[in-house]
Write a structure and sequence with these properties.
The chain is mainly β. About 5% of the residues lie in helices and about 45% in strands. It contains 2 helices and 34 strands. It has helices spanning about 5-10, 30-35, and strands at about 50-55, 60-70, 75, 80, 85-90, 100-105, 115-120, 125-130, 135, 140-145, 150-160, 170, 175-180, 185-190, 195-200, 210, 215-220, 225, 235-240, 250-255, 255-260, 270-275, 280-285, 290-295, 295-300, 305-310, 315-320, 325-335, 335-340, 345-350, 355-360, 385-390, 390-395, 400-405. A 5-stranded mixed beta sheet has the order 1-28-29-30-31, with no helix packed on it. A hairpin with a 3-residue loop joins strand 29 (about 335-340) and strand 30 (about 345-350). The two termini are about 30 Å apart.
Length: about 400
């Protein structure tokens, strides 16, 4: 489940001002705490990337509230309170390349909160939320903090010659990132001051996940490091000698473990490492990083999603099978499992039984010969995902459209 302190800290600051040091954070009133527990802070929902929003109030069936066409692609959204944010490619196909921009919208109406903010001409820009601020990161490693209320830049840090695909991760007043060139970094969420830097075992695309144990950075199932949150000191490492992977496989924390995955033909398992000891706990065939729920691990492999019960020896409680043999669990929220099917449909299942509760077509079915990659957005230019807050669901659709759904 979510770290209650993380949820409290995430909402402890007004969105009209910069973050304060973690030591001065005042716990929010209970109503604000509830609002932030029913929120999606960015890619894979939480700092641990478990895709789990247990207190979500969104319940299917849904009806479409609004949709906005932003160009060609929409990132995993951030949904907090009555606002939703995303990075979009605003290029309509006539500019010769991407134009990545940050958008902020009223969650109820889709009306823009402020004019779209230009980020970069490179693909790969992302956004996350924490401590009352938005944080964007471009592929070349430029990180900016933004005031969500007015879309005003609070500070900017360049990670030199970066190579980044995933957003930074905010945790207890600190922003953690890695530059894709072999360096991890911790920045003050308040002003961007560099707190520490640590060399990594490998280079390449890799997300940063954080919990009370520390900062976890993994490169496929070939290497990972656990770093001290305060100092960057290496606490543990795993490294396969003389091997490097293609990268791009997200890591996640869930069910008491760190989960790593390869996408190599002869090694496509998701492997769980004990967070305390580093021992291998289990290997499960998977072509997507797992998602997690209350006493559940959701594993997808070749279009079959299995709900595994962690209290019963990982027994399979139900399965969902995609007719396209490709599916990814994007979100587990409020008792429902949100599956993006390779057919182009979003399918919502009851968490306990796997029964279908609702579905909606987000895009056209791909050509039968097209390779459907489980964890890629429609154009491969930013991180995919869903978001929920205050009873609403926000889903990027094909061709750069963001759709908001509410109670039917």
């Amino acid at each position: 489940m979510r770290d209650a302190a993380v949820v409290a800290a995430a909402g402890a600051l007004l969105v009209t001002g910069p973050a304060s040091p973690a030591s001065s954070v005042t716990p929010p009133p209970s109503s604000a705490a509830a609002m932030y527990s029913d929120a999606t802070f960015g890619y894979r929902a939480t700092p641990g990337h478990d895709s789990f929003v247990p207190a979500a109030t969104a319940r299917p069936p849904f009806k479409k509230l609004w949709s906005r066409d932003f160009g060609s692609v929409v990132s995993a959204p951030v949904a907090v309170g009555g606002r939703v944010f995303a990075v979009v490619n605003a290029d309509q196909g006539d500019e010769g390349g991407p134009r990545m921009e940050l958008v902020g919208l009223d969650a109820a109406t889709g009306k823009a909160l402020w004019p779209q903010r230009f980020l970069t001409r490179e693909p790969g820009a992302t956004v996350t939320f924490g401590g009352g601020l938005l944080y964007t990161q471009t592929m070349s490693g430029q990180i900016r903090a933004w005031d969500p209320a007015g879309g005003v830049v609070k500070w900017t840090v360049d990670l030199r010659n970066g190579f980044s695909q995933y957003p930074p991760t905010w945790y207890r007043g600190v922003l953690y990132a890695q530059d894709g060139r072999g360096q991890a970094v911790a920045l003050s969420g308040e002003n961007g001051r560099r707190l520490w830097e640590t060399p990594l075992l490998q280079n390449g695309w890799a997300p940063v996940v954080v919990d009370e144990a520390g900062v976890w950075i993994g490169f496929d199932n070939l290497a990972y490091q656990l770093l001290d949150r305060a100092t960057g000191k290496e606490l543990r490492r795993f490294d396969v000698p003389d091997m490097s992977g293609p990268g791009g496989n997200p890591v996640a924390l869930g069910a008491g473990a760190l989960w790593l995955r390869n996408s190599l033909g002869d090694d496509s398992d998701a492997v769980a490492y004990d967070r305390r000891t580093g021992d291998v706990l289990r290997r499960l065939p998977a072509d997507a990083t797992p998602a997690f729920g209350a006493n559940r691990v959701y594993i997808a492999d070749r279009g079959v999603v299995r709900a595994l019960d962690t209290t019963a020896g990982y027994a399979t409680r139900w399965t969902y099978t995609s007719p396209r043999q490709a599916a990814t669990v994007r979100l587990v929220a409020g008792g429902y499992v949100y599956v993006q099917d390779g057919t182009g449909e979003l399918v919502v299942l009851h968490e306990k039984t796997g029964a279908k509760a609702w579905s909606y077509r987000l895009g056209e079915a791909p050509h039968p010969m097209e390779n459907v990659v489980a964890e890629r957005d429609w154009n491969g230019w930013t991180v995919p995902g869903l978001a929920t807050a205050q009873g609403r669901l926000f889903a990027p659709a094909q061709n750069g459209t963001l759709i908001a759904f509410g109670p039917a």
